[in-house]
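Sample pair:
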Amino acid sequence: MQITTCDEFLYDSGISIDNEAKGIASGIIEKIKAGGDRALAGYIKKFDNYDLSKGLAITDFKIGNDISEELKNALNYAADRIKRFSQLQLQKSWFDIDERGTVLGEKVTAVSKVGIYVPGGKAIYPSTLLMNAIPARTAGVESIVVATPTKDGFIDPSILFAASIAGIDKIYRMGGAHAIAAMAYGTKSVDSVDVITGPGNRFVAEAKRLVAGSVKIDSVAGPSEVLIYIDNDRYIEDAAADVIAQAEHDSRAIASVVVNDKKLAEAIKQKIDEMAAVVQRAEIVENALAESRIYLCRNESDVIELINKVAPEHLEILSDNGWNMAYGIKNAGAIFIGRYSPAAIGDYVAGPNHTLPTGAASRFSSPLSPEIFLKRSSIISYSREGYLKDAPIAIKIAEHEGLFNHANSLKIRLRD
């Protein structure tokens, strides 16, 4: 993990297109669209080592009850926290009536069908299922399905338990780009959906990018990120532990630190090196740390400028001045303020969603919320008085644009 100056940060926003993964995902999508279940069965056999003739969907989640009571309680607690926060975020229809009696507003409606991708393979993610499904249920979505990669068709019971408490209709034993294609376009065995959310590997990310437009997606997710600001040596061990926690996500994860004191930069580097040498998942952590940085800035103002350039997925502020600093932060997926608010608490039980914009996308994107599962219809209902005032103005604009039939549509109603 290198120490570098703030000035050496290279601004590179957005999730770059992975052309190799895109090409492979594109081919898979086209074969699923053309071949339906036959093509899907081939990919599931190849990548999941599972025979589709044994059944693709699971609708009975009773095996989930085999997990420990402690884990059940933990997942139920997390679900309650996520639901509570999602309810606070929920948008509602609104209407306004002006002095002329004209009614304007928005009718907010949930989409009908949602597909959630829950990654698997290297780890088990019931938390991701909860974070994606509960906002959808809160929004009022009628049908929610999950696709998750399996090995020999096996799905961990914790996923099944999470599905039962989140109101999932069915779980498909499939992962990868073929799962995204099947949910986007539908096959005989898989109903098409309106929205697809959830993170996945590079092929899943590119498949989501390719189907966007046919369905709505949450985002194209890149490697997970954290940026930690620390201004006091009291927080060195906390910051080092949080860096390593982020680094264990994936070999491409970014777990960086920003300080404005050289001695502090050197001390935290030493602590990170010490802890990384003895942790579990050491190879993944080592690879991630090789691409991560400790940024040394001149002052707090430069720190804030760097944070807004990085636009991190997770931002931790380990400082007694954390709340004042937070006012200057414009770009971050989630902001964790204070020693007792590590990013890991947000991954599970805080309540706000852990599905966050990556690759500097927090410059223009937000965390997943019920909003992704909602759509708005504008409501326009003019009174006669309001129409008599506004129609002549609209006619003038229409005629200027050369849309004379638009103008005539407006003029007809002025004759009476």
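The chain has a mean pLDDT of 93.
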